[in-house]
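step=predict obj=Site-specific recombinase XerC n=51
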Amino acid sequence: MVRIRAIAAGINTKIGNHMFRSTGITTYLKNGGTIENAAAMASHASTRTTQ
């Protein structure tokens, strides 16, 4: 759905729901969040997946 809306708006780039997820986690970590909490928010079984 995000990609369809982006194309309709004339945004010619790869975009999707996962981009919002990864951007949110990255922003959280850059603002002092812990890797353990980030892994939990992303439902990752291991912090290695989050890194």
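step=describe
The first helix runs from residue 2 to 8.
step=end
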